[in-house]
What we know:
Low-confidence stretches: none
Shape: globular
Oligomer: single chain
Strand content: 25-35%
Number of domains: 2
Order of helices and strands: EHEEHEEHEEEHEHHHH
Number of strands: 9
Structural class: alpha+beta
Largest sheet: 9 strands, antiparallel
Amino acid sequence: MFITKMLIxxxxxxxxxxxxxxxxxxxxxxxxxxxxxNYVFCFTRKSKDIPFKAxxxxxxxxxxxxxxxxxxxxxxxxxxxxxxSPIQKNAGIPxxxxxxxxxxxxISFLTYDKTTSNKITESIGSKNVIEIIESKKITVExxxxxxxxxxxxxxxxxxxxxxxxxxxxxxxxxxYSWPRKYDLENLSTDFSLSKPTIAYHMRNAERKLLSTIFxxxx
Length: 218
């Protein structure tokens, strides 16, 4: 099997909303209902700035917004943008959840051979701007780990793009290793920010993650 991951520049309403609010939008469920129309079920952290009255209504034929606590659920029939349909028409398997963050859609799908993956990629690219693409062979064990890790993006809900980027860089580079292989000085240099600013973003990110894990209010 092959897994293909894409980062797609998007102008759809949900992508614009994620960019406007700096909040990721998580899509755990989506399917085509007819030509160029999808049913979408998604959620995001509530924000007074979410532009429901403008961009969102431009894409949705019908929609309902349900809010409770810190989160909002959005579901309805929405204009398709040539992403999910090519995957399903070519017997690909979309991997959920899909994540929309900072105006970009993060999409992953499985195929049983590289030729099908290339065909799907070409079809998606004909209607969208693909910024990043990665395709590789995957074992069943790798697939299981991928699905398990796919349950985790909702834990990052509430992180700004800067917080997520800094935290990810710190983790990958060894900031949390013992002995520490990477420090605030390195992060400050890499992101061209002062050490107090880096520390501020990291503390905010860590607080949000812990708050989500332990189900406490911010």
